[in-house]
Amino acid sequence: MPMKQIAKTYRTSKHPSRRREFGPVTPAGTDIASPKQLELEDKIAKKRQEILGLESELAAEKERHSEETAKKKMKFNQLLDLRGDSIPDQLGFLVDDMDKIWLPMLSLYKEVQRSISVLMDERDAIDFHEFTDEELDALEWLGRTIAEDRRSVVYPIYTSVPTLEEIRDKLGNMVMKAKKE
């Protein structure tokens, strides 16, 4: 550990003009540093420079991120402004179209469901010779369709407008993210 050379004083009085000094005199605050201390101070200076460099990189990255976020926000607002007025009208038309598609399919689905439940209940009492080949083919086709894609039989609207579900999911995710922030 480096030793400071301190001016030793002998006080005969509290007044500075009456003090006597002994030993070597060094200017106040001057240290005689060892090579190890100089090396450590060099390392500290390098680390400070590295920290300053990293802080400037961080500031640049924050700036880039905020610019990117601002661009996305601006694009979102522009798209919402352009499409916002027509979205309720377009959704209204879509709902009307869905009603036109859904209502006949719903009644058809209910009829098929009633028919199947009757067939299941009366399974043992049916005379199979009364069925025509076309009826059996229809039942086979229905079973094959259900096996291939159950949603297309149960919910035909999803097969008619497949992108509506994707759009709803994406808008739902955007709303959830907006609520988190």
From TrEMBL:
Region described as Disordered: spans on this chain: 1-32
Coiled coil: 37-64
Keywords per UniProt: Coiled coil
The name this protein goes by in its record: Chromatin assembly factor 1 subunit a
Classification lineage: Eukaryota, Fungi, Dikarya, Ascomycota, Pezizomycotina
